[in-house]
Amino acid sequence: MKIAFFDSGIGGLSVLHHALKILPQEQFIFYADEDNVPYGTKSREEVLHFVDEAFKFLIGQGVGAIVVACNTATSVAVKAMREKYSLPIIGMEPALKVALDLFPERKVLVTATAITITGEKIRRLIGKLHAQNLAELLALPKLVEFAELQEFKSAALEEYLRSELDYDFENFSSVVLGCTHFNYFKDTLREILPAHVKILDGNAGTINELIRRTNLQPAQAKNLPRTEFFYSGRRVTDLRELARLAKFLHRLNEMEAIK
Fold first, then answer.
1. Beta strand ranges found along 61-188 (DSSP E)
2. How many whole angstroms separate alpha carbon 115 and alpha carbon 118?
């Protein structure tokens, strides 16, 4: 099956990265809307338009399923896309349930973009899990900018995170990364957060849902599957850009084991 992974930028590579290892027999398209990144600072109407344009393009490429590997786009547009298109559409969900299943009585800090944090979808999730007294929400919009610039380690990055993560973490079990761009910074987060605070993301859960919805079969990776890359509908062929994407994937390999 040809499966599309869609994001506003390169954050969704972290979800694709997991799929490459779990579903190596499939064919993948990665679509980054680099012309319009970041989505977190746009209006909901703009994001809905961008997502619909991407879906039209991807369906034209013959994909059998689309993973919206972007929490912001999921929050704003997945419901409308499912009403409009008939193929399986898998969205992202912050790993709040995972955190509460592991530590039912401990607080969780959910980080994401501003549009996700203020959206109705995260409120419904918190209500569904009866987590009103356990979930705290924090927008970290500058992390998207740091990620897109491949500024993975810097004094400015560390200063930003230390300033924003000014919490007494004694009663927290975990920090949930509710934006796929945030996965590139697990090492700095691990240095800043107390040892008992876990770092959780929704990538594995998203791929598990993809497998469930499409009846795909996980397999052992022998060779990396073929992946086509697109920036806002333009196929990426420039060797410098392909090297840039490879650098992101290499970074994700380094971040994989950090919890």
1. 65-68, 89-90, 107-112, 135-139, 172-177
2. 5
Task: From 110, 105, 180, select the one nearest 139 (Cα to Cα).
Answer: 110
pLDDT tens digits for range 204-253: 999 999 999 999 988 876 666 689 999 999 999 999 999 999 999 999 99
pLDDT (tens digit, 9 = 90+) per residue, 132-164?
999 999 999 999 999 999 999 999 999 999 999
Active site residues: 70, 179
Give the C-alpha separation, 168 to 132, whole Å: 18
- Our CA dihedral for 212, 215, 220, 226, rounded to 10 degrees, sits at -110
Structure pTM? Answer: 0.92
Instruction: Please give the domain boundaries of the chain with CATH numbers for all domains.
Output: 2-92+204-255 (3.40.50.1860), 96-201 (3.40.50.1860)
